[in-house]
Structure formats: C-alpha cells, structure tokens
Design goal:
The complex is a heterotrimer of chains A (682), B (254) and C (289).
Chain A: H1 2-32, H2 39-56, E1 58-60, E2 65-67, H3 75-98, H4 106-127, H5 130-133, E3 150-153, E4 156-159, H6 160-182, H7 184-194, H8 196-201, H9 206-232, H10 239-242, H11 244-253, H12 259-279, H13 293-308, H14 334-350, H15 353-378, H16 386-402, H17 408-430, H18 436-454, E5 465-466, E6 471-472, E7 475-476, H19 488-509, H20 512-522, H21 524-529, H22 534-560, E8 562-563, H23 570-583, H24 588-597, H25 602-610, H26 617-631, H27 640-649, H28 654-659, H29 670-681
Antiparallel strand pairs in A: 1-2, 3-4, 5-8, 6-7
Helix pairs in contact in A: 1-6, 1-9, 1-11, 1-12, 2-3, 2-4, 2-9, 3-9, 4-23, 4-26, 6-7, 6-9, 6-12, 11-12, 11-13, 11-18, 12-13, 13-18, 14-19, 15-19, 15-22, 15-23, 15-24, 16-17, 16-18, 16-22, 17-22, 19-22, 20-22, 23-24, 23-26
Chain B: H1 6-9, E1 27-38, E2 41-52, E3 56-60, H2 67-74, E4 80-87, E5 90-91, H3 96-102, E6 104-107, H4 119-124, H5 133-138, H6 155-168, E7 173-177, H7 185-202, E8 205-209, H8 213-219, E9 222-227, E10 230-236, H9 237-242, H10 244-252
Chain C: H1 5-8, E1 36-45, E2 48-58, E3 63-67, H2 74-82, E4 88-93, E5 96-97, H3 103-108, E6 111-113, H4 126-134, H5 139-147, H6 164-172, H7 188-200, E7 206-210, H8 218-233, E8 237-241, H9 245-251, E9 254-259, E10 262-267, H10 269-274, H11 276-282
Parallel strand pairs in C: 3-8, 3-9, 6-7, 7-8
Antiparallel strand pairs in C: 1-2, 1-4, 4-5, 9-10
Helix pairs in contact in C: 4-6, 4-7, 6-7, 8-9
Classes of the chains: A mainly alpha (682), B alpha/beta (254), C alpha/beta (289).
Chain lengths: 682, 254, 289
C-alpha cells in the first residue's frame, strides 16, 4: 500500500504535465473549437529553451540566437523565459495558422495542428544543436528547479516537488476554469466559439479573445513541463511532443469541455502509469505486458471515455463548418494508367542501388498514402493510424514467414487481413465520433500499437523480427542478391502489386463505393436518410484502408528482410499524412506525390543526398503542408465559382422557363440572398 | 430585373432612391445608394433609406428580396460595393467595429443569443456601467430565468433576451431582422410595443425587417418594400396600412 | 434558421397559449388502413416536449399537409418518423412497426424525407445524389465495383445512368437537364427539388417533405404543387410541411395543424382554413398570395 502511494506521487510529475496540457487543450477547444495537437511541441521547445539558458545563457530563436548574459542563467529567470517561449509559439500558431483556419473544416484544422506539431519538433532538433548553443545537446539535461526535499508519510517517501507540481496543475486548471466562468472576457470567449458574428456585433474582437487563451495555455504548458522535466527525466527532441497523446486522452475524459475533469484525469493517469510500472516489476506480472503498458493506457482511456461517456462530446457547432477539399474522382483510361506505369518501369530499369531502392519505397509509400486518400480524403475519417496498420501487417508477416512458413503471395494476403481486422477494431470508435476526436482516438491507438507491439521486447526481440525472402514458383523474389541491394525482380513485383491495387482502388472510388463514401463524408444524416448504412460504410472504409496499408507494410518489410519498427512510428505516420495532404488528399495523384516526397522516397533521397538537406526534411514537409493548408487551401476552389455563378444566373427553373421562355427572370442568385444563413454556421 | 421605377410608386419624393435628399441632419441612420452582396456580386442595389432618431422604419418584402443583406451591410458585416452607410455621421465602411462604436446594433435573424451561456451570462456580455439591472427592470420576465441556459428558453424568451441585451448597449440605431421568426403572434404582439417605447423614450432609430406586415406597420412610422434587391415602395406606415393593395403589388413586383 | 434543436422548439410552458384551442377535430376519413400511421408519438428534447402525443395518418396516393408556426415541432415530427430523433409511441408503415428500425433501413422500407436545408451531397452530381439511394454500398458493392460489368455504358462520374429510375425521378421534378451538374450550381429552389427527387427515387412509399417550396417564388411554388400532384397520383403518400398556404390549401387532401408540439386541428383544407382561430393565430400573415 505504501509503495502504491509512493509511486502514485512519483506519477504526479508526469500527471501534472498531462493535467496542464489536457486543461490547455480543453481551454483551447472551448475558446476556438480547435483540438491542438501541437500543445506538446510548444512545451518541448520551452524545455529545451530553459535547458539552453541554464547551460550557458543562449536564447535560441528560430533563426539565430542571442546570448543573454555571459554564463548560465539562474533557475527562475530561465524558467520564465522558457515558459514565455511557449507563449510566443502558441500565439504565433494562433495568428499564422489557426486564425486563418477558423472557419475551415475539422480536417484542415487537424492537419494544420499536426503540421505545427511536426514543424516545432523539427525546429527543436535543428536549432538546439551544438552550433547554436555552443554545447553538446546530448549532454544537456533539465536542471532541477523545485526543491528536492522529501518527507515520509505512512511509510512512503514523498517528494515535495511532486506535490508542488500537482498543486501547480490544479492551480493552473482552476485559473483557466475561473477565467471562463467568472470574467466577462472569459464568458465572451466561450460565446465567440458558439457564434462569432453575434459576438462581433456586440463590439468584441473574437480574435483577441482567442489570443488571450492561446497565450495563456502556451505559457502554462511551457511552465509546467519545464518544472516537471527534471523529475521526469532526460531531454530528447521528441518525447514531450508525444505527451500530447495522453493529454488528449484526458481532455476527452473531460469531454473537451470540463477543465477540472481533464486536470483530475491527468493527475490520475500519471499516477496510474507509475503504479502499473511498479506492478509490472512484480513476478506475477505477465511478461508479455511488461513493456509499453504505460503508453497503451491513453488508448484505453480514450476508448473508455468515448464509450462510457457516450456520444455527448459536441463538435463545435451542429453543422459542418466550411467545405471539404473538392474531390477528383479517378477516371480510369487505359492510357492514363499505362503511361506512368511504363515510365516507372523504365525508371526502375535505368536506376540501381540506392536510387532504385528509394524509387521502390516511393511506390510502396504511394500505396500507403492511397489508403489515406481513401479513408481521410474520400470518407472524411481523420485517421492517424495508417502507419501502425502497415506495421502490424509487417509484424504479422514476420511471424507468418518465420514461424509458420507461409509462402509468398499468401503471406502478404494473410498479413494484410490481420491489418484489416485491426483496422475494423480501431474503426469501431469512429462510429460514435468524428472530426478531430477521431484523430485523437486514432493517434492514441497508433501510440498504443507502437509501444505495446513494436517496442515490446517479448513480442519484438532485440534481434528484430526477421522476414523470410519471398519466392514464387521456385524463383526468388528477394530484395537482395549478392551485391545488388535491390533486384529488378523485387522491384517489378512491388510495381505490379501496387499498380493492381491502385487500379482496383480507382475502380472502387469511381463506383458505388466511392459515391457512398462521398455521401457519408459530405453529410452523414442525409446519407442515412438516403438509405446508406453509415456505420457499415465507415467500417468498410477502415477495412479497405487498413488492407492497403497492410500490403504496404508487408512490402516495406520484404524490402528490409526484417521488420524495422522505425519505419512505422507515429511520427512517420504523421509525416505520411502531411505529405498526402500536401500532395492532395482527395486524389490518387496526391498519393503519388506523397509517395515521392515521403520518408525514404525519391524526393527524400534527392533532398538528403543531392541537396544535403537531410536534417531539414521533416521541417520542409511540415512547412509545405502548412502552406498548403493555410495559404493554398484546397477547400477554396479558385476557378469553378465564376462559371457556376454565370450558369446559376442564367438557369431559371426549366419548367418555368418553358412557360415564360422570353422573359426568364434573372434575379440575384438564390444562394446569394440566402447566404446569411450559411454565414452563421462558422 | 422587372421592378418598376420606384419614383412612380413613392409618394414622398424626398425619399425616392433616384433623387437622394439633401442630408437631413437628424437622420441617425443614413443609407445612400447602397449596393452590397456576396463575393463581389451585389444582391441589393441603390438602396436609399434614412431613419431619424426616435423613428421606426418597417422594411418589408418577400423572401429573398434583400432585406437581410441590407441590414448586414448597414451593420458592417458585408463589404459595401457602392454607396455609403453612415450612423450619426460616422461612415461604416463595411467594418463591424465602426458600426458598433458608432452606436449601431443589429439583432440578427438567429437572434444572436448564445445558447450555451445562461441568461445572466448573456446579459453580462453587454458592457454596461450599471450592470444588467436596467434590462431586468425593463423586462421583469427575465428575472426568474437568469440562471437558465439560453438554449432551453422558448423562442419568445430568447428574442426578449436578445432585445434586452442589445438595449443595455444603449444603441442609437437598432436593426432587428425577422424578429417574429419562430414566435407565436401573441409573443410578437407583446414585444413590438416595447420597441415603440424604446424609440419614443430613448430616441433610438429602429429598422424592423418583418414578415408580418400588419403588425410591423402598426408600430412603424415609415415603411419601405423591397423586391429583387431594390426598394420599390416607400411611404408612411399609416398610409400604407390603409392601402394594402399597393403593398401587395409591390410584393409581386408589378 | 435555428441551428439548435432546443432553440428551435420553444418551451410550451413559458409562452402564452392561444385563448381557446379548437377541439381536436376528427380527421375526415383517412383510408381505413393508412400507409403511414403514428400513434401517441412524443419527442422530448432536454426537458422540452417537442412532440406531444402526435397521431398522424398518411394514406397511399394522398397528400397530407402539416402546418403550424415555426418552432411548432413539425420538423421534429419528421425527424422522429424517419429515425433521427428518439421518441415514444408507435410508427407503422404498411402495418410494419418501425419504432426501433435504424434510419437507413426505414428509408429502404420506403419512408423517404427531404430536409429544410437541402442537405444534398455537395461532392456528387445531381444524378449521383440519386444514385446513392439506388445503389447498395458494402461488400457486394465492392465486388461489383471491382469485377462487375458496367451496365448501360460506363459507370463513371459523368454518367451514372445505372438505373432508369434516376432519370424518371429527375424528370418528375423537371431537372433531367441538370443531372450532371453539381448541387451548388443550382438555385436554392432547384436544390430543394433535387432533394425531392432523391426522396422519390428507389421505391419510396411515403414522402415526408419538409418545406420543399421555401426557396420558390409564387409561380414556381404553384408549378411545384402540380408536380406534387403528379407524384401522388403514381402511388406514394405525401406528408407536406410548408408555409406557403396557397400551395398547401391547393394540393392537400387533408391538413393537420400543429402548435407547441401538439396537433390542435385536423380536417380538410376547407374546414381548417375556415377555422377562424387557426387562421388568426397560426396562418397569420395578412398578405397571403
């Protein structure tokens, strides 16, 4: 019992981070309707900033750096500057990204916040290096700020610092909650999220009100993480970015509307993780579950939150805001399919070594990205699990080929079916939620799969999951032969398989299945009223998408000879989503772009080898995606509007026109006069 | 566009759109030659309306005539594509901030009350020195509802709240869009006299967009009828009330 | 247009009621076994009784009007009948109980509706909007898409002439020429008609039309009324909600008047329109075209 108490209090350090990040996420959702995946990245920058200041007083800026004083900065000023850097990043994200997107559909907002998340993280890796700071980032640690005192309570050793962190979390959440409840500006902020126009008519500026919340949450998140980091452990350029996943889970427990519940859930989650960590060292604990349990909990929390708390998490506004990216339905013409196929074949023959390998990776990534096009572009379900599905199939492939000796084409089919089953399991939550919340559920699922399966030593031995080379009818299709890193046979096997699947996908998307997907995407209520079984269609979409991703995962696995978990991390998954969105998430050609630009693809190789810009790669992808989301918005069609208007002006009712042919009324377009209604929706 | 020339139907030549009157200094709201619409395409053209302080104008017309567009442009929610809107001499260049600062308030047709806030919170949003006491004095019915979430109020109560909240801002010009939408006629009959009182006692200029013609004319001083984005008829409300055939003709645009 | 159901349906308690409500007139002779019959249908939204003990019959080939002021609960009734609002009481279509049947199955059983705000699939063409009703997505659909022969020409975006029913339905509402247009290219009135066509297609037995004529002018509205007659002659029953009294009085066989979630009067258009109380309180614009 004492042990449990002791570990629970230890867990308050991470718990405080979850609590404040979660309270911040809820606050931002209340104020703006945005679910901000970048909350952890903002805090990540703050931690590094504080560490740099305390090492030698360097203030690192996105470009350049400033030396504040000659030597290390003292603790509290450094903490304050670090937390303020969180405030600045948060405000910048508001002004440059989220404010322009305030009427964009959920997909645009989620993708944008994922873009900000990746962008800041990539910038942390780039900027906090030896050149800028003058110290080795590997040697940097978050120095303690809070007291190291302990006391004994009921036999348990309690660290005062951890209690202070918990107190800070509670105070931060209470402050945020009081702001929304008792202050006029806080009330106005809530009102602005409901009806921005009505608030403007009362003389408020919704943007300024939102900015207050962005700034405050950025500061509080930065402050908490900076103070908690020494207790949590070392410094790396990723970890706090992904703290947003448990924070999102507790925000969902608070139904994205209760700051207090989110804070409490965060503290409990932190404590629970430590207790489980402690229990997993016990001899009776099953060895298969000894790793990754802590990271799997957020997904469990999300699922429980979604199912026990019911469907009552309101999306902001009852109606769909803004328009989704327009869809380009694939037109299958023999030539348009054959030409790129032939070109790719020739390119495979003409290249060799590394370049051919990256070309084949591009082909495989195209398939993975095509699954994103199907699920997110066509069906409108924002899933961040794609790479995890691919990895799961690769994992199954390893087991099937090494343990069960399943022969080649069957091995891919069975492994992809494993991914399909997993996809359906993850898709079940999608029946109850949509938009940003589905993104939360799926990223939690991806993290759980990554930690519990890929990084679990009892499932994935340190020697790796080997995959036997494919062969068919006695001919080896192995990726390597002698000194050849990638054989022609393997390359063409991949090309043929991907081409067949893409053609099948094009047929699906241009047929009844595609129409049903688009109907669900554009209006679920109306789809149900048109006789479409919406849950079944969604599950079908998840099944098909995870099948495609699964085949992609198998091909990646075969290309390595073993399952390399690094290919399937959450980060890679987010990068693929970013690349697909940048390429055009509603068209198969967008998947091709994503394949070329995705990790280890042709453009990646070009970027890293030829231009030697490898370390900028994630930054570039994130920046391109942000530009695509914010500046070149796909939901703003440039051309067709004018033409449509002309036709509308000239298109009175046919039945009326027949009777009044000479004097057809050419009034103002009907929708123009009725626009106020739709304008309210934002 | 088959609207008749407005002058033919307009009894008061000084308010005819084609002959803009010399500035009347007591006009709280002056709309001159206004064209406004969406995405650069005008939905209303050449609108001329002047409303003196303490006077009520009923803006009538069939669905889609452009009444809402006119109000939204006057409130700065839509860019002005031509002409001008001034509130007590201050031009509103398509900016809401200008309009609210000049003392103009618009109650939109969705009433603009915040459903997730309580009645008290809604009232607090009006930045008034005296708190929201005056609103409760004027509409005592709201007193018992202060802690109720606005989304649970009836349509009539919501409209009452919207008006009460707006009046706390002491508007010099008040635009009310489709006040009676979703209200029972009985509820409308109780709210309209309140607006008359506001005009008479506070000297507020009011523009009322209404479907219920008779009720609107009963409280208005002047009336204007829109059709196909233009004003096709203006006149004193009492006169038009006696001559419904003219309104009816204006409604059908012939 | 109210966005919030709670806002749309005022609390009956706090709004003054009409001085004396007309007694519930017994509806004159609906068909002995109506196609659609609701009994004791009640819907509650967060403490507000939005529909209270509503009993409505719609017979085959019959056009039944449901009128009443905004916020009376008419749309709520349609939501409940078509499976979009949970309710108590019973709903029968051709003698089959539908109370616990999900919305999409009710549509396949022949209960079709339109929406006040159109709710068309903006990414699909007009014909494709209708095709969604006729087609069945699912594993079978996947199989057909992958290996099925494409009947009647290519089944592509520009030409989803899968079923002649689509052409027929578009013809009925006079929009055959717009089959390949996007909804956004049509006027609001035409968009409403696409909604009607989408409700018509695919063996609809009862149509619930929620303000289908709201975007139409007087002439168009009258033309729509004639189209509605033609549709009803072909067999399906129609429940028509509209504010255009000229249209309602012209085309409906019977009328129900709803206020504060309850049916307060029922009868022939002649009876209802002569009911002074109903006219004064609920139909009440003095300029009625």
């Amino acid at each position: 019992m004492n042990d449990l108490l002791q570990f629970a209090v230890i867990g308050f350090s991470t718990g405080a981070v979850y609590a404040v990040l979660g309270a911040s996420l809820v606050s931002l959702h209340i104020a703006t309707g945005v679910v901000n995946f970048a909350q952890g990245s903002v805090a990540l920058w703050a931690v590094w900033q504080t560490a740099a200041l305390r090492a030698n007083g360097t203030l690192v800026l996105p470009l350049g750096s400033v030396a504040l004083g000659d030597g290390p900065m003292s603790a509290w000023p450094a903490v304050l500057v670090g937390a303020t850097s969180g405030l600045v990043w948060s405000l910048a994200a508001h002004l440059l990204v989220f404010r322009p997107l305030r009427r964009a559909p959920a997909l645009g907002q989620v993708v944008a916040s994922v873009g900000v998340m990746l962008f800041i993280q990539a910038l942390v890796t780039l900027r906090f290096d030896r050149d800028t700071m003058g110290v080795d980032p590997g040697g940097l640690v978050p120095l303690p700020v809070l007291t190291a005192q302990t006391f004994t309570f009921g036999g348990a050793t309690i660290a005062v610092g951890n209690l202070l962190l918990a107190g800070l979390a509670v105070a931060a959440a209470a402050g945020l909650a009081a702001y929304f409840r008792f202050t006029r500006t806080g009330i106005a902020t809530k009102a602005g999220a409901e009806d921005e126009q009505a608030l403007r008519l009362m003389g408020y500026s919704p943007d300024r009100l939102a900015a207050v919340v962005w700034g405050a949450t950025g500061f509080l998140s930065g402050l908490t993480v900076v103070l908690a980091a020494p207790a949590i452990g070392g410094l790396d350029p990723v970890s706090y970015m992904l703290y947003v996943v448990p924070a999102l889970a507790v925000a969902l427990v608070g139904r994205l509307s209760s700051i207090g519940v989110a804070c409490a859930a965060g503290l409990v989650l932190g404590a629970l993780q430590q207790i489980l960590l402690f229990l997993s060292t016990k001899p009776w604990w099953p060895s298969w579950a000894s790793a990754g349990v802590g990271d799997a909990i957020p997904f469990v929390v999300v699922v429980v939150a979604l199912f026990l708390l019911g469907r009552g998490i309101p999306e902001r506004g009852a109606r769909e805001a803004g328009a989704l990216p327009p869809v380009a339905v694939p037109q299958l013409r023999p030539l348009s399919a054959a030409a790129p196929l032939a070109a790719t074949g020739i390119a495979i023959v003409l290249t060799s070594g590394q370049w051919r390998f990256s070309l084949v990776m591009s082909i495989v990534l195209t398939l993975v990205a095509a699954s994103v096009v199907l699920l997110t572009g066509y069906l409108g379900q924002i899933s961040l699990t794609t790479m995890a599905f691919a990895g799961a199939a690769g994992f199954a492939l390893s087991k099937l080929t090494t343990n069960a000796h399943v022969p080649f084409p069957l091995s891919i089919l069975l492994s992809a079916l494993v991914a399909t089953a997993l996809g359906i399991v993850v898709g079940v939550p999608a029946l109850r939620i949509r938009g940003a919340q589905l993104a939360v559920a799926t990223i939690a699922a991806a993290l759980a799969i990554e930690s519990f399966v890929f990084n679990n030593p009892s499932l994935t031995p340190y020697t790796g999951n080997l995959i036997r080379d494919p062969s068919m009818l006695g001919h080896s299709l192995a990726v390597r032969q002698g000194t050849d890193v990638i054989t022609l046979r393997f390359s063409f096997m991949v090309l043929v398989m991907v081409a067949v699947l893409l053609i099948a996908l094009a047929r699906l998307l241009s047929g009844a299945t595609g129409r049903a997907f688009l109907a669900v995407r554009s209006n679920e209520r109306a789809a149900a009223a048109a006789g479409v079984n919406v849950p079944a269609v969604k599950l079908l979409g998840f099944a098909l998408a995870s099948f495609l991703a699964g085949v992609g995962g198998c091909l990646i696995g075969y290309s390595r000879g073993q399952l390399s978990t690094a290919s399937f991390t959450v980060l890679v998954g987010l990068t693929v989503l970013a690349a697909t969105y940048a390429g055009g998430i509603t068209r198969i050609s967008g998947a091709v772009v994503a394949g070329l630009a995705g990790p280890l693809g042709v453009l990646y190789l070009f970027c890293t080898q030829t231009l030697e810009l490898g370390k900028y790669y994630t930054l570039i992808v994130a920046a391109v995606m942000l530009l695509r989301v914010v500046v070149f918005r796909p939901d703003r069609a440039l051309m067709p509007q004018g033409a449509a208007r002309v036709r509308r002006l000239l298109a009175p009712f046919p039945s009326i026109a027949r009777r009044h042919a000479p004097t057809a009324p050419a009034g103002p377009p009907a929708d123009a006069v009725h626009e106020p209604e739709s304008a309210h929706a934002g | 566009m088959n609207a008749t020339s407005p002058t033919a139907e307009t009894p008061d030549a000084s308010q005819a759109p084609d002959a803009p009157a010399a500035d009347r200094t007591d006009d709280a709201l002056a709309i001159r030659g206004l064209s406004a619409g969406y995405r650069g395409v005008p939905a209303v053209r050449d609108i001329d309306l002047q409303v003196p302080a303490g006077s009520i104008l009923a803006l009538l017309g069939p669905n889609g005539a452009g009444k809402t567009t006119t109000l939204r442009a006057a409130a700065g929610l839509l860019p002005v594509l031509g002409g001008s809107v001034t509130v007590l001499g201050t031009p509103i260049a398509g900016r809401v901030e200008h309009a609210t600062r000049a003392g103009l308030c618009l109650i939109p047709d969705n009433r603009g009350v915040f459903h997730r806030l309580t009645v008290a919170e809604n009232l607090r949003l009006a930045r008034s020195k005296d708190g929201y006491g005056p609103a409760l004095d004027r509409f005592p019915q709201l007193r018992g509802l202060l802690n109720r979430r606005c989304g649970l109020l009836s349509g009539g109560e919501q409209q009452l709240l919207a008006i009460a909240r707006t009046l706390l801002l002491r508007p010099r010009v008040l635009l009310v869009d489709e006040m009676s939408m979703g209200l029972s006629p009985v509820a409308v009959q109780r709210i309209l006299p309140e607006l008359r009182r506001v005009a008479d006692e506070d000297g507020t200029a009011i523009v009322l967009v209404e479907q219920h013609i008779d009720q609107a004319l009963s409280v208005a001083d002047e009336a204007a009828v829109m059709h196909h984005g233009r004003i096709v008829l203006t006149g004193p409300a009492a006169e038009l009330r006696q001559d419904r055939a003219r309104i009816q003709r204006a409604y059908f645009g012939d | 247009m109210p966005a919030d159901p709670a806002g749309r349906d005022p609390a009956p308690a706090s709004v003054p009621t009409a001085p004396s409500r007309p007694a519930l007139a017994s509806a004159p002779g609906p068909a002995p076994s109506p196609l659609l019959a609701t009994r004791g249908l009640s819907v509650r939204y967060g403490g507000v009784l939005a529909n209270d003990d509503v009993c409505i019959d719609v017979g085959a080939g019959e056009i039944v009007g449901l009128i009443g002021p905004n916020g009376a609960g008419k749309t709520t009734f349609v939501d409940a009948v078509t499976g979009f609002a949970s309710h108590t009481g019973t709903i029968e279509l051709g003698g089959v109980r539908l109370d616990s049947v999900p919305a999409h199955r009710r549509r396949r059983l022949g209960l079709a509706r339109t929406w006040q705000s159109g709710e068309l699939f903006t990414d699909l063409t007009v014909a494709e909007n209708l095709a969604v009703v006729v087609e069945r997505a699912g594993l079978r659909g996947v199989f057909d898409d992958l290996v099925g022969r494409r009947r009647r020409g290519r089944r592509t975006r520009a030409d989803p002439a899968i079923d002649p029913a689509i052409d027929q339905a578009l013809d009925l509402v006079g929009l055959a020429a717009s089959a390949d247009r996007r909804p956004e290219e049509l006027s609001l009135g035409q968009q409403k008609l696409v909604g009607v066509a989408r409700a018509l297609v695919g063996s609809a037995r009862v149509l619930l039309l929620d303000e289908p004529a709201a975007g139409l002018d007087t002439e168009e509205s009258a033309e729509f009324g004639r189209e509605l007659r033609r549709i009803a002659v072909a067999g399906p029953g129609v429940l028509l909600i509209d504010h255009d009294m000229a249209l309602v009085l012209e085309v409906c066989d019977r009328l129900y008047v709803m206020d504060f979630g309850r049916i307060i009067a029922a009868g022939t258009p002649y009876d209802v329109s002569r009911d002074e109380q109903v006219v004064a309180a609920y139909l009440g614009s003095p300029v009625t075209p």
